[in-house]
Amino acid sequence: MDSATSRSRILFRTAGGPFSSGFLAIALPAAPFDGIFLTMRFFAAFVALIAVFSPWACAKDAEAPPNIIFIMADDQGYGDLACYGSRHLLTPNIDRLASEGMRFTHCYAGSAVCAPTRCVLMTGMHPGHCTRRDNTATGALDSFKGRPLLPLDASDTTIASSLQKAGYATGGFGKWGLGNPGTTGTPDRHGFDLFFGYLDQVHAHDYYTDHLVKNGGEKVPMKKGTYSHIPIFDTALQFIRDNVDNPFFCYLPVCLPHGKYVTPNNETYAGKPWPLMVKNYAAMITHLDRDVGRLMALLKQLKIDEKTIVFYTSDNGPNPPFVEPLESAGPFRGIKRKLTEGGLRVPMIARWPGKIRPKTESDFVWGHVDFFATACELAGIKHGKKDSISILPTLLGKAQPQRQPLYWEIHHPFQQAVRTGKWKALRYGTKSPLKLFDVISDPGEAKDLAAENPAIVRNIEAIMEKEHTPSRFFPAPEKPKNRKAGRKKGAKKQAS
User: Fold this and answer.
1) With bands split at pLDDT 50, 70 and 90, how would you rate the model's confidence at 97?
2) What's this model's pTM, rounded to 2 decimal places?
């Protein structure tokens, strides 16, 4: 081989920020014994390029972007964890997560029901801008064959696709709910290297299903008697093992404790004076808690505990049967599907050893919509999501300005809500009177202060008008309507 033309390709890591990563390739000549001085000259250039392209290459505190794990329970109330005041449920592992990290008291779900919350979380757009604004569409119903389930659009950018482009391995495990097989909304089309669980939100009610789904629709048979949460969570743990040497995003929108309310074992609560449904619901939460403990033990076993940030939350507020016996809504009014605090205020815990100070509590107001920007900053990448802000400064114990107003809308029935500072406002039609509450002094939203604060009301009405963009699939009525919407006339009602 001609030594003058022979080349060796060298790769080294570069970065554009404290958590971003990439590679730069340099071709060097082969180094015959008599060309040592030429090689030294190339080596000097090589070192210079490292200094130019890798700002943190020589820094003592240089570090790779963290692994990101996001666990989201399904229909778990704010008051369903001991660390959030529950007197009824045993959640020692999630409580430990909170004691080793930061517990937020003013975090809000993306919506008050399953599918739009997932849409907000994945896309970083609030319900006035995102594609899926309720579980089922309320307009343009002739566009659908069967149930009016609007999938993610092919143009929707998700946090998974953004992290995937940044070099993260991406896995999702649980209930997707944003696109069934054959649509533009399946997880394999939106940045997930691996997805395992349920695509269809109604299929996800069947914990003893005969099959689960992989990626865009591949059916994976289940043995009779298999409780689906178990293989779903086990697959997530294996995904973490398989990517121990790579940055990864593990998204766990688990089905527990959503109905149907069945569990392999409710003996922990067998002696409680509750109906069977309530015992099973409680046992489902404690089952999930045990799995959180398994996950945290795995991170320590793999020695990636300090390289991994873990978030834990719920997708919306609780269902009615659990509000009284378990105090599932905590101190708040309302339930799932309502834009009151009980439907929207959710637990949120973040843990990152060495970065997030243990045993801290934050009253910073933010929501699931902000996970997109936060994850992007963690990964050292840019994003163009105007609805989403990064809360990384708060996580790291730094001062952060008050967030701009949070906005929601939901369509079964239609409601709009805004949280800005201490104020929370609700209305049930775009021309309906606004209800206004000071949720700092009145977290139960008992006293309507709209009449006493006309300027605040006008300001929030303007916010609602600005933040709502029209969607033919989710028309916004001017006044409350008493009819049932969301399905074609004569169509069989589906649970969601």
Assistant:
1) very high
2) 0.86
